[in-house]
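Hi everyone,

Forwarding the result from last night's run.
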Amino acid sequence: MALRTIPIRRAGNRHNLFLGGDRELVMTAGLLAFTLIFAAQSGVATVAGATLWFAAVYLCRLMAKKDPKMRHVYLRHRSYRRYYPARSTPFRENTAEQARRYR
């Protein structure tokens, strides 16, 4: 008796992208550009806002092309500690003098 195979369709496994980039980053950049353009209401602000928008969409597309989950990877990376001192086991009890050596 052969094993039954079930095809996994791409539509159910797509990444959450908008305009080819990470959805939240692209929409945040659009909001910032929109706010800049309509808050300042000048030609310079319009050019700066449009430049910001197109540059952000381009960079978000590049990032999503490398790894669609790059934002999540970066946020997880930021939550890690800067230095993990060497320990033999997580249950080892260090004295106060030993703890001072590793800080």
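The mean pLDDT is 87.

Cheers,
N.
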